[in-house]
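Posting this for the archive.
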Amino acid sequence: MKKLLLFFILLIVLPTFSQKEVETFTSARLGEVREITISLPPSYTKDSKKKFPLVLLLDGDYLMDPFLGVLNYGTYFEDFPEVIVVGITQNYNHERETDCQTEEATGLPIVKGNLFFDFIGMELLPYITKKYRVAPFKIIAGHDITAAFANFFLYKDNPVFDAYISMSPELPVVMEEQVPERLGLIEKPIFYYQSVCDGDVKQMQEKIKILDEQVKAINKPTLYYKFDEFKNQSHYSMVLSSIPSALYHIFSFYRPISPPEFLEKIVPMTENQTAYLINKYEMLEKLFSIKMAVRLTDFKAIEHGILKTGNLQEFENLSAYAKKIYPKSMLADYYLGLMNEKIGLLDKAKKHYKDAYSKEPIGEYTKEMMMNKIYEYKEQ
């Protein structure tokens, strides 16, 4: 209850995305003018070279605000990167029905469904990526028929979207078989989130669960899949549960090392803890095109993991990585000092702590800390 209250308070007081801008977009493919809403992150104007992942929302007229609320919350706590959000207005129970039109026998887009598909891929995305600094990583999200429609982008040999948020999808015929088949064939990394609730109609639930079973059977390291089945929720209320679950799943590599991650993944490791940290940030750059300095808290987590497992020689690897990431700081020398201290080579430990003292402090690793370490072994 406290976490829920904190969430709603923060939605009010946190720095938000820049004001939403509503634009009219003349589509040659659709032969009509469509409304889109664009929200840029707070730092967009501060760094003219930085690029941001894109979140494209179908049903943007009612999904935009809940997505922005969760994204504001997540970026405040550094769980998510800043993103550009674009919502397509579809006027519930009007345009969305024809936008997502499919053929009854094949389940494939027809008539305006084909045109809407082309509008997104051939007109809207090129426009957005040309006008704004969009990183290669792109997410598409939808609810019921628009969630199902987003799946059609998986049918391409090289899908333009890297992550799919499918909330209570109303799957057309055979889609529950085609989506798993496509996910098994696509070579690049794909994040796929799907949810259902007991308030959905029975036929929808059955097809969604068939899709879920088949996707779970895919053994593929480049497929990042999560399925949620929400109890005691309606077809509409489940959206508010799905959005944070989906975003935390997709951006799991971005988050700092959490207590559960530390206990479940790092503590059981008897070696290569530094390799785990290196891989985390390499995956961050590879998947999201985000290059960032390794968080000091993540270094600290690996330090604690090494001490907990007793694999003290691993400090040599952690020191080498610290020297690469923070070459002017005292961190690399500190780790060598800590290693020698723990194995009982106190003279060597003192020498490395002295070397650390001559370097730049970083975070909680201060000159006072190094001096205390040096004097601790002065008489030994």
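The domain at 2-250 is CATH 3.40.50.1820 (Rossmann fold). The chain has 15 helices and eight strands.
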